[in-house]
Amino acid sequence: MLNNHSRNGSSMLDRYLANLSVEVEPFALCMLQSGWRLTLPGPPCAMLHFVVQGEGWLSCPDGTHARLGPNWLIVIPTGTVHSLDTCENYEHELKIECTPTGPPVHHIVAGKAPAEMVVGCGTLNVRYGEAIGLFDHLSEVLVVDLSAIPEIPGLFHSLIEEQSHDAPGTPVLQGAIMTQLLIHMLRAVSSQSDSNLAWLGALDDPRLARAIDQIMEDPFAPHTVESLAESANMSRSAFASHFSHAFKKHTGLSPAEFRGQ
Question: Cβ distance 218 to 167 under 8 Å?
């Protein structure tokens, strides 16, 4: 049975997931031959990588060096230059200066066939209404192993297939598929004590979670310090001091900004 703390955290996360707005840009398939490095520019918004095939490494100028495997999902923060490597000691490098445009599914080839590692890459915007963005305040690369989830490969292949043709409802269906991938990712990340998604830290504070849950239930209601303090079972003064600091720490926003006002 869930305790009150777990129920509060689950309620907040469920509320967020139920109101996600997901916009997906066309993916590129990056294909790397053995011994190659592919260096990509800092994306204008969060970039998602999905390892379709093979194993390798992700490297960033800040020293990030993470092992990657099939069905792993990686989220790159805005503006972060990064590289995909098939091995730690690469021999050749292909540098991409700007985000590729062109066909719905672009192909970037480092080396020649056959490819040792294939990675799907694309930018995405994930928001809760007009307020908090899932990756807005991500400061470090997020690497999540989803290989134990049987549905993951099929979901990603469905996303690529949907991007391969222009049909009515394609953007909506793409968003629905990506939402499923993100839910699996959030389930994995929310169970980690060292999560890089700062706002998920609010789930560890049951009083803060109750207040945010109330805002999420009706973001445009005239919430006040008094009403939120009541939901958190705190005095107005104690809540105002605790809430302002903790809210800013976990979301990067003030309560008014979170509500989209």
Answer: no
Name the 3-class secondary structure at 113.
coil
Give the class (CATH, top level) of 22-179. mainly beta
CA–CA gap between residue 51 and residue 11 (Å, rounded): 31
Ranges of beta strands (E only) in 69-205 are: 72-76, 82-85, 92-95, 106-110, 117-128, 142-145
Phi, psi angle pair for 106, to nearest 5°: -85, 150
* List of the chain residues with pLDDT < 70: 1-13, 15-16, 100-103, 128-132, 191-206, 209, 213, 216-220, 242-244, 246-261
pLDDT given for residue 208 in this prediction: 72
- For residue 6, what pLDDT is reported? 47
Give the predicted TM-score (pTM) of the model: 0.76
Cα–chain center distance at 85: 22
Averaged confidence pLDDT in the chain = 80
In terms of Cα–Cα distance, which of 77, 78, 30 is closest to 56?
30
Structural domain spans, the chain: 22-179, 205-258
Return the pLDDT at 216.
64
Q: Are 17 and 183 in contact (CB under 8 A)?
A: yes
Pick the CATH number of 205-258 from 1.10.10, 1.20.850, 1.10.3210, 1.20.1280: 1.10.10
- Tokens linked to 244: 């302002």
Find where tokens 């190659």 sit.
Answer: 36
CA atoms 29, 35, 76, 69: torsion sign: positive
